[in-house]
């Protein structure tokens, strides 16, 4: 399953839990969701912004996303924490990507992502930011 499909499945689960009112959101959860959505949007931006950047910059922005999710995860518990942890796991392929050439030596099993993989991960982040905004509302 690709990054976008994995995040999409998690988003469906969140939306179902919200619809069924299983997820009792505290004001703190809403504030964290909003702050995280804002951070994700700042890191990736709207469609078309990342594509003009170098692979190194795109990868740095995706790693900023993972950092923002991890920081929020450290500040919460319950369903929001479970959701964020699952999102980090879904985005984990980013951790195996490199933007620089391996230099012919060992590279810790990293790979250079394709433009499509970058776009897919960035799209997943945009979807994640959107659902976090809905959670915060």
Folded structure, characterized:
The protein is mostly helical and 137 residues long. It is 66% helix and 0% strand. The chain contains 5 helices and no strands. The chain is elongated, with a radius of gyration of 15 Å.
Layout of SSEs?
Blueprint: H1 3-19, H2 27-44, H3 55-74, H4 78-90, H5 115-136
Helix pairs in contact: 1-4, 1-5, 2-3, 2-5, 3-4, 3-5
Name the features.
66% helix, 137 residues, 0% strand
Helix content: 55-70%
| Share of residues in strands | under 5%
How does the helix and strand content classify structurally?
Answer: mainly alpha
The radius of gyration is 15 Å
Main beta-sheet annotation: none
Q: Using DSSP, what is the number of strands?
A: 0
First-residue to last-residue Cα separation? 30 Å
Spans of at least 5 consecutive residues whose pLDDT stays below 50 are: none
Order of helices and strands: HHHHH
Specify the number of helices: 5
**Residue-averaged pLDDT:** 93
Shape annotation: elongated
Quick rundown:
The chain has 137 residues and is an all-alpha fold.
């Amino acid at each position: 399953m690709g990054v976008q499909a994995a995040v999409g499945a998690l988003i469906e689960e969140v939306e179902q839990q919200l619809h069924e009112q299983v997820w009792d959101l505290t004001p703190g959860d809403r504030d964290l969701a909003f702050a995280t959505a804002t951070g994700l949007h700042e890191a990736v931006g709207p469609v078309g912004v990342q594509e003009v950047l170098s692979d190194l910059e795109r990868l740095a922005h995706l790693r900023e996303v993972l950092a923002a999710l991890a920081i929020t995860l450290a500040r919460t518990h319950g369903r929001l924490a479970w959701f964020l942890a699952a999102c980090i796991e879904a985005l984990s392929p980013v951790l195996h990507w490199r933007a620089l050439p391996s230099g012919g030596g060992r590279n810790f099993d990293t790979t250079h992502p394709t433009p499509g993989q970058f776009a897919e991960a960035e799209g997943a982040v945009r979807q994640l930011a959107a659902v976090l905004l809905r959670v915060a509302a």
